[in-house]
Automatic annotation (TrEMBL):
Summary of the function given for this chain in its UniProt record: The purine nucleoside phosphorylases catalyze the phosphorolytic breakdown of the N-glycosidic bond in the beta-(deoxy)ribonucleoside molecules, with the formation of the corresponding free purine bases and pentose-1-phosphate.
Pathway: Purine metabolism; purine nucleoside salvage
Source organism of the structure: Maribacter litoralis
Record flagged with keyword Cytoplasm: no
SUPFAM superfamilies linked: Purine and uridine phosphorylases
PANTHER family, A to Z: METHYLTHIOADENOSINE/PURINE NUCLEOSIDE PHOSPHORYLASE, PURINE NUCLEOSIDE PHOSPHORYLASE-RELATED
Stretches that traverse the bilayer: none
Enzyme class: transferase
This enzyme's EC code(s): 2.4.2.1
InterPro entries named among the record's database cross-references: Nucleoside_phosphorylase_d, Nucleoside_phosphorylase_sf, Pur_Nuc_Pase_Ino/Guo-sp, Purine_phosphorylase
Single GO cellular component term: cytoplasm
Gene: punA
GO biological process terms, semicolon-separated: nucleoside metabolic process
Listed name of the protein: Purine nucleoside phosphorylase
Family (UniProt): Belongs to the PNP/MTAP phosphorylase family.
Length: 271
């Protein structure tokens, strides 16, 4: 059934002028400004795209934007979906499948996350090298998954090595600090307890968030190379834990965003 729905979503977008994008981009919390760099943008609001989920988080806009950045055709998700909104794994990753069917050959992902590695600070960016799925499920655990790709998707190197190297070089050239580390994905929407932060650090994560991993699993299933960057918006020190201010998280993401936009635009240029 999902294949027919995907075909209908894709037909709607092609009809609107979404013509063979090369790069798909998912923008995280407080990271929507990349769309300002898009030349000749065409918008498609999620509530108009057949079978598309709707963004319910107040700081997620909820539209796909198609156009050109650095000479390449892109399709950008301004606003993503999360388990904590009541969606399931298929809903969350539906847009990745749509972008793939539109023709993307690379996927960029951004998110806002908490720094569990105490060497990392608020406002730092972290290139994701690997991840830990703590969301209790998989977007590939459904009947008929093998119609879309190998059921037992390999995850030995989920984030593309070549694009990661390029981003590290771009960061150095532009004097932008870019940490590297492991991202753990939890369900949310509640933030972690002191004990949970200790556990997350103990199992090898450097940052924790509530998104990205399902999207990455599906992209790997579709053999789509991925690069992902976390903007670290709070420091998760269990011994000095303060109540989190969501407005502060958004504000830090927005302040760091120009650096992330610079990294993504330069990487697009080099691909």
């Amino acid at each position: 059934m999902m294949k027919e729905e995907l075909l209908e979503s894709v037909a709607y977008l092609k009809n609107k002028g979404f013509d063979n994008p090369e790069i798909g981009i998912v923008l995280g919390t407080g990271l929507g400004k990349l769309v300002d760099s898009i030349e000749d943008p065409i918008d498609a609001h999620y509530n108009h795209i057949p079978f598309f989920p709707l963004a319910t988080v107040e700081f997620h806009t909820g539209k796909l934007v198609y156009g050109t950045i650095s000479g390449k055709k892109v399709v950008v998700m301004q606003g993503r979906f999360h388990l904590y909104e009541g969606y399931d794994f298929l809903d969350i990753t539906y847009p990745i499948r749509v972008m793939h069917m539109l023709g993307i050959t690379k996927l960029f992902i951004s998110n806002a996350a908490g720094a569990v590695n105490l060497d990392f600070k608020k406002g730092d960016m972290m290139l994701i090298e690997d991840h830990i799925n703590l969301q209790g499920g998989s977007p590939l655990a459904f009947k008929g998954v093998s119609e879309f790709g190998e059921r037992f998707a390999d995850m030995s190197e989920p984030y593309d090595v070549d694009m990661r190297k390029k981003l590290i070089d771009i960061a150095k050239e532009n004097d932008i600090s870019l940490k590297q580390g492991v991202y753990a994905s939890v369900v949310g929407p509640q933030l972690e307890t002191r004990a949970e932060y200790r556990m997350i650090k103990l199992i090898g994560a450097d940052a924790v968030g509530m998104s990205t991993v399902p999207e990455v699993i599906v992209a790997n299933h579709l053999s789509l190379p991925i690069v992902a960057v976390s903007v670290l918006t709070d420091e998760c020190d269990p011994d000095n834990l303060k109540p989190v201010d969501i407005n502060e998280i958004i504000s830090i993401a927005e302040k760091t965003e120009p650096k992330m936009v610079k990294l993504f635009k330069e990487l697009i240029k080099q691909l």
